[in-house]
């Protein structure tokens, strides 16, 4: 019988492929396929369902396989693990491929949206900027730790640190003075690069109609709008805005049993970068409420007074995720109505 489902365990150079026919019987088992031979192997097969874990290179392979008529689904690795652990074999590439082949056929399995080359290029801009921000934070923390060894303790705010550390540099003995000076210079260079990437993201957001539409929603700026476009595209991989919010990890985790509903903290699933941008945008909304009396501001203020600051932040972030899905999916302006 013809192969209808394939599971591929991705790697750098050697891949494992597991294919089954319509009865579920293995019909293509190749535990070691070289990277140069993988595409040729898949191209010669009739159109079928291909499952892969969402890891490095998965989106590239998905686009290649789709060009040859195959249906490709990407699965988060944590959703594949139960199908592997429940099998007869241990952890190896062949067992992973068989588990992926089984998981991709499950009717309620959740899949990762396949990104286009343009989306990945835009995400590269975001990932590079975020990496530079983390490097800068680590550098300033390293500076604080080093000068603390000499009894110098400065405020955590970067502006005050840079402003006040100059008066203490001469008090540092020997190589300490040079090292701290070099670290400060390195942090300044990182800040310049971060600013250049931020400008590039803002420029891209200004040139995209959908990004400009997203920015009309309170709490969504150029960076968040650009990240949403790069991560979810037109939102066609999600059936509803709540599903997107759940994918990002902004909905409560459930611990219900015996007819009793118990809701815990948010799941924090999905993309931590996208979730953090939405949360920071929600915090900016609450910080900028002031005495505003429009409908949205009254709702946010009442929500904060009833449920507390952090629950209000999460609720606003989840609302923005749902609104963003509606804007990207249907192309309408779902801005919040004001009085």
From TrEMBL:
Taxonomy of the source species: Bacteria, Pseudomonadati, Pseudomonadota, Betaproteobacteria, Neisseriales
Protein name per its UniProtKB record: Transposase
Domain Transposase IS116/IS110/IS902 C-terminal: 212-286
PANTHER family (UniProt xref): PUTATIVE TRANSPOSASE FOR IS117-RELATED, TRANSPOSASE FOR INSERTION SEQUENCE ELEMENT IS1111A
UniProt domain Transposase IS110-like N-terminal: residue ranges: 6-149
Organism: Chitinimonas taiwanensis DSM 18899
Protein's GO biological process: DNA transposition
GO molecular function, one term: transposase activity
InterPro entries attached to this UniProt entry: Transp_IS110-like_N, Transpos_IS110, Transposase_20
